Amino acid sequence: MSPRRLTLLLLLAALLIAGTALAQDKGSVTPKPLPPLANPNDPTLAAKELFARKLLPSKGSAHVFGSYTKGCIGGAMQMPLNGDNWQVMRLSRNRNYGHPDMIALIKRLAAKAHKDAGWPGILVGDIAQPRGGPALSGHASHQIGLDADIWLTPMPDRRLSREEREEMSAVMMVRPDRLDIDPNVFTSGHVLVLRDAAREPAVQRIFVNAAIKKALCREAKGDRAWLSKIRPWWGHDYHFHIRMHCPAGAGDCEGQPSQAEDEGCKPSDLTYWFSDAVLHPKPPPEPPKPKPPMTLADMPTACKAVLHAPDAKP
Fold first, then answer.
1. Which residue from 63, 72, 87, 99 has the fewest beta carbons nearer than 10 Å?
2. What span, in angstroms and rounded, lies between the C-alpha atoms of 150 and 239?
3. How confident is the prediction along the chain (314 residues), in pLDDT tens digits per residue?
């Protein structure tokens, strides 16, 4: 790997790790509304400031525009805060909206986690904002309602209080040396839940910490074809990230190329992730210049209409 490419990857890693830390930040039981924008029509205004101020989805049927990292969703569906086998966390973030296919998938996974792994259920993290788009913190993706974070902490066998949903921390699944999972907390149940998620035909990728991928390669039994969807990525040691294919017929949705169908378990597949440069990255000689924020003009044209469309009924 060229030094330039390695430097770029490490800079990306730093940003992603920072995003993961933000995802673990505590919420608030009494969140304060964002102040009105002085000039919401300013063409240089960051799009995240506009989308974060939309508290409800747009009216109409679900429609995805753009990509996971530059897009929006009209007609998003809200994930119910409670179900027989799930609870939504960090309610103050207002990021429990997604494409109806994603909401249905999470509900199926919750039931399978209960049946196959014996978990009471799952804890649901961020999906997307009511109209998708870039968020003020925590993610570069999650913009079109087809990404979802599921905590690797099993749901407790009781209803969590609002305070617990905002302040409870997810459990770290990786050893302090980052070379493998912590066997005291990562169990065979986690293998089954990740397997169930990866076997969903609509799921394209699942991002986990490389140590979790390593453990899955070691522990998976029987049909192992699902391992091809499990991809090592920076962070993701408290939660796993589900990414769905673009829905059928969604011509305005920009998906990702399919990955190789092999298990991804050869030593050469994981060597990079356990290299010293990745596990102990050195800061660059000069801090990278901050990139200008994404504006509404940078996004698919239809996202302007989504942003200004009437609210759906709460």
1. 63
2. 5
3. 444 444 344 444 444 444 444 556 888 888 899 999 999 999 999 999 999 999 999 999 999 999 999 999 999 999 999 999 999 999 999 999 999 999 999 999 999 999 999 999 999 999 999 999 999 988 899 999 999 999 999 999 999 999 999 999 999 999 999 999 999 999 999 999 999 999 999 999 999 999 999 999 999 999 999 999 999 999 999 999 999 999 999 999 999 988 788 999 999 999 999 999 999 998 888 888 888 999 999 999 999 999 999 999 98
Distance of CA 283 to the CA centre of its chain: 26
Q: Nearest to residue 24, comparing CAs of 176, 139, 145?
A: 139
Measured distance between the N- and C-terminal CA atoms of the chain, rounded to whole angstroms: 51
Q: Where are the extended beta strands (E) located within the chain?
A: 63-67, 70-74, 77-78, 82-83, 86-88, 97-98, 122-124, 147-151, 203-208, 230-232, 239-244, 253-254
Q: Are the C-beta atoms of residues 27 and 91 closer than 8 Å to each other?
A: yes
On whether the CB atoms of residues 87 and 159 are closer than 8 A, the answer is yes
Do residues 147 and 64 touch, judged by C-beta distance below 8 A? Answer: no
* CB 145 within 8 Å of CB 99: yes
Under DSSP, is residue 116 helix (H, G, I), strand (E, B) or coil?
helix
Edge-to-edge order in the sheet of strand 70-74: 70-74, 63-67, 253-254
- Check: CB of residue 186 under 8 Å from CB of residue 117: no
Q: Which of 205, 162, 209 is nearest to 185 (CA)?
A: 209
Query: ∠ CA(4), CA(9), CA(10), 5° rounding?
Result: 100
Segments in the chain forming alpha helices (H): 3-23, 47-51, 100-116, 162-167, 188-198, 210-219, 267-270, 276-279, 302-308
- Residue whose tokens read 């996202």: 303
Other C-beta atoms lying within 10 Å of the C-beta of residue 252: 15
The pTM for the full model equals 0.91
